[in-house]
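Tokens in:
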């Protein structure tokens, strides 16, 4: 753990030194890089190991000289090596996901099969991780706790979260009806937050495209696709644009607000009819 702290401090000190060398405040760098000011502070104080894509954005914001760029390129290489080592295992993956969300001001997520991690209750998260073959029960509990703790970002001013789910996603039945019922109630509560826009594409609506897989776009610059055993991070501008266009297409046929909450209420009522076989 001491070695980990030292590595994090060293990485933070480098970012802080480079920022000061170009005469930027933390707030100014955050604005240029399109991340939040707390993210800059946490990186510079050694509290957060930034993901490579976050550092790429810092490079752009710092407008570094070739020499400084080379130094930060070396940092990127070290990060790619150290993220699996310092953040290994299931809990590490969740920590990395939380860090990615915290570094973004805007998140657009389309999910056709299940409730996205940022909206899951603790029990739903445990079920999702367990059914995904995540590993031992203690590791699952720890990962679920990290996932739920990371949802505090939903309540922070100045952030924007847009979620579009299919009706199939909210009708996915991963475990006890009581867990699903609580999850649907959670969706209805979160949909009232000023930072959250939540829509559902009803079954009765013809879809504009085939929903081959879910994805989450961060600040319109990177899209993450979760797979069975890993995730793909897409940063090519054309590919990200296609993901955003797909998100907007599904957003265009989704229902929101009271109409969406009424649909969730009907889904919850359907599940309660199944309680006798729970």
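Residues out:
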């Amino acid at each position: 753990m001491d070695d980990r702290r030292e590595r994090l401090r060293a990485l933070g000190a480098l970012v802080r030194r480079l920022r000061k060398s170009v005469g930027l405040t933390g707030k100014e760098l955050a604005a240029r890089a399109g991340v939040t000011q707390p993210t800059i502070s946490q990186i510079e104080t050694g509290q957060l190991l930034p993901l490579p894509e976050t550092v790429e954005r810092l490079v752009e914001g710092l407008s570094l000289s070739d020499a400084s760029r080379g130094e930060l390129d070396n940092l990127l290489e070290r990060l790619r090596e150290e993220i699996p080592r310092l953040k290994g295992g299931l809990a590490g993956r969740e920590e990395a996901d939380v860090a990615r969300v915290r570094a973004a001001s805007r998140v657009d997520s389309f999910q056709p099969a299940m409730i996205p991690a940022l909206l899951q209750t603790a029990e739903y998260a445990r079920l999702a991780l367990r059914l995904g073959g995540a590993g031992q029960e203690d590791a699952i509990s720890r990962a679920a706790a990290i996932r739920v703790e990371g949802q505090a970002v939903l309540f922070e001013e100045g952030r924007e979260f847009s979620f579009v789910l299919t009706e199939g996603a909210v009708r996915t039945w991963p475990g006890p009806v009581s867990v699903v019922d609580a999850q649907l109630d959670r969706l209805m509560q979160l949909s009232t937050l000023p930072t959250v826009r939540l829509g559902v594409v009803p079954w009765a609506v013809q879809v504009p495209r085939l929903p081959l897989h879910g994805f989450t776009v961060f600040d319109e610059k990177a899209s993450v696709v979760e797979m069975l055993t890993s995730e793909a991070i897409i940063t090519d501008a054309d590919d990200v644009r296609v993901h955003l266009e797909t998100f907007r297409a599904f957003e265009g046929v989704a229902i929101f607000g009271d109409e969406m909450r009424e649909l969730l209420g009907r889904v919850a009522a359907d599940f309660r009819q199944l309680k006798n076989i729970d």
